[in-house]
Design brief:
Distance between the termini: 72 Å
Structural class: alpha+beta
Helix content: 40-55%
Strand order of the largest sheet: 10-12-13-14-15-11
Number of domains: 3
Largest sheet: 6 strands, mixed
Shape: elongated
Strand content: 5-15%
Radius of gyration: 34 Å
Number of helices: 17
Number of strands: 15
Length: about 525
């Protein structure tokens, strides 16, 4: 019988196709937003018609969806044939190990027919998904979660961006960022028409996993019937959902029931969406006869899961740990799609910030997986559009952003120490504002005659030019510049270089400020 790992590996083979589709849609939205950007500002009337706003149609998106589904259909046969062959080999090994006959080679054509029938069934599921009106995104709104088809969502994104920019609420750059983030976080979804929505990659993976599992179960049912095996042994795996953990690994009667064995379908909900062989179920069953050794003893089943563990103030059992791991994988994919969008929009600042967030999520993913003793499933965090070029760029961007954060934290620490010296001011910055002093008067009377200093205008201007700190006073009317060699106070409201003094004239508070700057290697 196929192991859960083998089934997942088969299903993962199709995932990149749909990750590529999501990448395409993110880039396409960016292109449409940028195409419409010229109409976001100015005196032109707000264009709410999508065709006018973006100047493009959704034909290319529909073609991309059809192409992705077509590629998936082409891959299905290879995936299912390989899975079917692996299952037969696994069953042969199990049967011969129990002293029973291996599956005869002449039975293989019939078993292959089972594979082909399930391929047709799964292909039909994918075709139903490919209807363009069924693919869109799920948005969080005031009234709850709402599904929007792609065309409606694209129009909504462009119109919302226009309204925000025209109202002065956001810049065009921030409006594009918001649209990229919303689409990247939401991802493409399938609308089933019943009020239920599902992520596209999740829906495809579920369809393939379910098809593979059902195919293996039908094969095993046929083998059990051929060999006259009256019982069924259900498979087991670590981290099963609680409702499935109740019956996994146990033996049931295929037809009817007895005092010793419950009925397979009745006990497991087999055939129901929530039961054995249902959606996302990784369990299956194979024929079993009285006296055969069980794959899982009761003692083994009692200990199939590791004990619960604590992590960051939360308690996780095996099932909860796998669910949290899946959530982090979704976060990684979402953040990568954001990066694809920011790269397409040429938004360096957003790209750097998102790169740092991706690095942090990956670090947390690795840390948690190690604590939970779970294998890292990096293959589930892949996004095809996030290729080597963007990946390398993201690594460097994360380092650059971390350096910015380090410098910002250091500056906050320096300013905190400077304020503790008692120096007065409303705002303190280590990035002094550049000003043109050509139109400013030099108060020679106050600087040199009244205070008996010998400071030239050129020296006062050099203190401003080489300043390493600036203090804003009097509600922005006065800017006090401090350099290694001296300080200059400028009255912006009066366009006046009000006072200046060299390092030899620094008072006690100014000396304390210089000592702080010297300690942090800020005096150059």
């Amino acid at each position: 019988m196929l192991t859960p790992g083998q089934m997942e590996a088969a299903a993962e083979g199709l995932s990149p196709i749909f990750e590529d589709l999501e990448d395409f849609v993110v880039r396409d939205l960016v292109r449409r937003l940028i195409a419409a950007e010229g109409q976001w500002t100015g005196t032109a009337e707000l264009q709410s018609n999508f065709g006018v706003a973006a100047g493009v149609s959704l034909d290319d998106v529909v073609l991309a969806i059809s192409r992705a589904m077509g590629l998936a259909e082409d891959e299905l046969a290879a995936v299912f044939n390989k899975a079917g062959a692996l299952n037969i080999l696994s069953e042969n090994e199990r049967l011969t190990g129990a002293g029973l006959s291996a599956i005869k080679i002449e039975r293989l054509p019939f078993l292959q027919q089972i594979v082909e029938e399930v391929i047709i069934q799964t292909r039909g599921t994918l075709r139903n998904m490919s209807r363009s009106t069924a693919i869109g995104i799920v948005r969080d709104t005031v009234g709850g979660r709402m599904f929007m088809g792609l065309q409606a969502y694209y129009q909504h994104s462009v119109d919302t961006a226009m309204l925000k920019v025209r109202a002065g609420v956001q810049s065009p750059t921030q409006a594009i960022r918001d649209a990229i983030k919303e689409l990247s976080v939401s991802g493409l979804s399938i609308n089933y028409g019943s009020g239920y929505n599902s992520r596209l990659d999740v829906a495809v993976r579920r369809a393939v996993l379910t098809g593979i599992n059902q195919m293996a179960a039908i094969q095993n049912a046929q083998i059990a019937d051929d060999l006259g095996l009256p019982l069924a042994e259900v498979t087991a795996h670590q981290g099963a959902r609680p409702s499935h953990a109740e019956w996994q690994g146990k033996v049931f009667q295929i037809r009817g029931s007895s005092k010793k064995y419950k009925n397979l379908a009745m006990a497991t909900g087999m055939g129901k969406v929530w039961g054995l062989l249902g959606a996302n179920c990784r369990h299956s069953w194979h024929g079993f006869a009285e006296g055969m050794p069980r794959t899982w003893t009761d003692e083994m089943l009692d200990n199939v899961d590791p004990p619960p563990f604590e992590y960051r103030g939360h308690t996780y059992d095996a099932y909860g740990a796998t669910q949290y791991q899946r959530a982090m994988e979704r976060s990684i994919r979402s953040k990568k799609r954001e990066l694809v969008g920011y790269d397409a929009a040429g938004d360096t600042d957003a790209f750097e910030a998102a790169s740092k967030e991706l690095k942090d999520i990956r670090k947390e993913y690795k840390r948690f997986s190690e604590r939970a003793d779970l294998r890292l499933k990096n293959e589930r965090a892949q996004v095809l559009g996030y290729g080597r070029s963007i990946s390398q760029k993201s690594v460097q961007a994360a380092k650059k952003y971390e350096e910015k954060l380090r410098k910002a934290a250091e500056e906050r620490a320096i300013i905190k120490e400077i304020k503790e010296t008692g120096i007065k001011g409303q705002e303190f910055t280590l990035k002094p504002k550049k000003i043109n002093l050509d139109e400013f008067e030099f108060d020679d009377q106050h600087i040199n005659k009244d205070n008996k200093r010998n400071i030239s205008r050129e020296e006062a201007e050099s203190y401003v030019e080489n300043a390493v700190m600036m203090v804003t006073r009097y509600d922005g009317k006065s800017l006090n510049y401090y350099s290694k060699n001296g300080a200059t106070y400028v009255r912006i409201d009066k366009k006046l270089i009000r006072t200046a003094f060299s390092e030899t004239d620094f008072d006690k508070k100014t000396e304390s400020v210089m000592e702080v700057l010297r300690k942090w290697n800020r005096l150059t």
